[in-house]
Design goal:
Blueprint lengths: L1 H31 L7 H16 L5 E6 L15 E2 L6 E10 L1 H6 L5 E8 L10 E7 L13 H12 L7 E5 L5 H10 L2 E5 L3 H6 L10 E7 H14 L2 E7 L3 H9 L11 H4 L6 E6 L10 E2 L3 E10 L4 E10 L7
Parallel strand pairs: 1-3, 6-7, 6-8
Antiparallel strand pairs: 1-2, 3-4, 4-10, 5-8, 5-9, 10-12, 11-12, 12-13
Helix pairs in contact: 1-2
């Protein structure tokens, strides 16, 4: 059975990766209609509805492990929902139909539609809580440690990249909780890029050539940490994390979801344990990794990334969609 499954993966995941891009394209186009219009709920609903519809025609036996929330909180793409035709590979699905609902409502940068998948049982079923994270690109794998000081990690990255510390750029979410972290980075002498939102793009940025980002530090959402881990596994980068619970109820829920030690440091293989994983994303607004949706006189243009961890293949795809075909996704 294992040999057959390996064969199926080799044969099918190449096609599946492109099918997943079509799903993120559909979600991105639908939510892009709400850019700058001040309605987070409308933008998110448009993305969720479009992605869910796109999934219905993909040949896979998928289960959402990271999605829009619990079944009683989300009408579609809820945790535990079965997606796909029911035929083909059994997959864990982690999605954020619109990463950056606030970004989209404001018309700000780094909003995108994101999808990640791995064989069943290979993605951490992360609770909806916070996660302390550190992420780097391929050259710095093994050089950083979540348990080391900010100064030690920045100096390690500088050494590996053959840069002066003053030339290292750290990306951090602009939050009050990061005041002390920001002070430490500045005292160290490194540069900072503060972002309002866009946790997944921020974590992946150090692994993207020409992003200008060398290191991600700080606390963001745990589910986004898992999705980013799939992207970084495809890119050859690294992320480490530790859950930051807001209350005892969240810790209890993590244990119920199968985490024996909710306080442990989570390494790459804890977050995504299989090289048979895939990642796809389409930009909604212009950002560090992707360009946003552009509406043309007769359609729309999208910019996407699709990756496979096994081969480390990274494809950037620019697509033009005619209006009469957009609803077909």
């Amino acid at each position: 059975m294992g040999t057959i499954n390996n064969f199926l993966w080799g044969f099918m995941d190449r096609n599946l990766a492109l099918e997943f891009v079509r799903a993120t394209e559909a979600a991105a186009i639908s939510s892009a209609l709400w850019v700058g219009k001040g309605s987070e709920k409308s933008a998110d609903h448009a993305a969720v509805e479009a992605m869910r519809k796109a999934f219905s025609i993909i040949d896979m036996d998928g289960t959402v492990v990271i999605g829009e929330g619990e079944r009683d909180e989300a009408p579609m793409l809820y945790i535990g929902e079965k997606v796909g035709s029911g035929k083909g590979l059994k997959l864990d699905i982690a999605i954020d139909p619109l990463e950056g609902t606030t970004i989209t409502a404001r018309g700000d940068s780094n909003a995108m539609s994101v999808f990640a998948a791995a064989p069943t049982g290979c993605l951490l079923n992360a609770p909806d809580t916070y996660m302390n994270k550190i992420a780097v690109g391929p050259k710095c794998v093994g050089a950083v440690d979540l348990d080391k000081s900010v100064e030690e990690n920045i100096h390690a990255v500088a050494k590996i990249l053959n840069k002066d510390v003053e030339e290292v750029t750290v990306i951090i979410l602009d939050r009050d909780r990061h005041k002390e972290l920001i002070e430490k980075v500045r005292k160290c002498g490194a540069r900072i890029k503060l972002i309002r939102d866009g946790d997944i793009a921020g974590a992946m940025a150090p692994a993207i050539e020409d992003s200008g980002i060398d290191l991600l530090l700080g606390i963001g959402a745990a589910p986004e940490g898992v999705i980013a881990a799939v992207g970084l596994k495809c890119l050859g980068g690294e992320i480490q994390g530790r859950l930051k619970f807001r209350n005892d109820e969240e810790k209890a829920r993590a244990k119920k979801m199968g985490m024996k030690d909710p306080d442990k440091k989570l390494l790459m293989n804890d977050l995504v344990s299989s090289n048979e994983s895939m990642f796809a994303a389409t930009g909604v607004t212009d950002g560090t990794i992707l360009k946003g949706v552009q509406f043309l006189s007769d359609g729309a243009k999208t910019h996407s990334i699709v990756m496979r961890a096994k081969t480390k293949t990274v494809r950037f795809i620019e697509s033009e969609h005619k209006f009469e075909h957009v609803p077909e996704y």
